[in-house]
Specification:
This protein is α/β, with parallel strands linked by helices. It is about 45% helix and about 20% strand. β6, α4 and β7 form a beta-alpha-beta unit.
Length: about 325
Amino acid sequence: MPAVNAQQLKIAALAPDGSSWMESLNAAGDRIEEASDGEVRIRFYPGGVMGDADTVLRRIRLGQLHGGVFTVGELAGVAPESNLYSLPFQFRNAEELAALRDEFDPLILDALYEGGMMAPAISNGGFAYLFSRQPFTAPADVSADLRVWIPEGDPLSRRTLERIGASAVPMSMAEVYTGLQTGTIDTFGSTVSGAIILQWHTRAKYMLDLPVLATAGTLAIDRKAFEKLDPAHQAIVRQHFGDALRAQEAAVVDENIQARAALVEEGIEILQPAPDGVEEWTARANAVLNEMLEAGEFEVPGLDRLRERLDELRGADASATP
């Protein structure tokens, strides 16, 4: 039986009940209640019943919810540092991202806390790749006929795709499958496991084997609600939700490996990009980002430091090559 003066944290998630995310988080919630002797209880609202990320954040500000499960980039309004991992064409591979996380995860988490949200850890979801009904491996293959889904309210992706030569089509995640069915879009970005879970892969024929951007998720709790908890209970919440996020990351690594094999079995052709094409796409994406930063249309604190560290890593790799 819960304690008489138990505190309840209400947390929304887009992930459906029964998914690996919710199974992991529900188990963590049970451990939190047990470790706090029933004085802290977690109530989840899965499956997007509380709305999209913007709606959940608004409900948190109004006190209707205490937290939510987000992609890290969805928290850029709380702390713009949250965009560091989700910028297009910044990382060449998973090893580069892994090498920098000990330095930049704390930077992002500290910025979120300063902005009013406690996130105990970041869960890497793997890279997003481009899936399409049209084959393309080089800039010359891309035209306005390539209709690419972007999330609503994402001017960086829109302008990047336009600079590359494709057409950007904004819509909510809930509309993507229908958009693929009707032909409103024919190309989308997703992790390999996400494409299968959402069944979007059934509307694609090709995957470009080029990591476009890193994906990451977290569970974030309103700082004021979190700080109302007893300090010992704060530590319990941090520990068990942090453990769940790290465990989910480990599970996703295996899921993405299995999903890649499943895509091939289901007839998705994985295309290798032309090396000079990768360089050109990267240059165009960075040009758009730099223009928006200089114009004050976009803010990513820590980006110069991230780029410096990437240059150092690549220089070390080059010098180590025989």
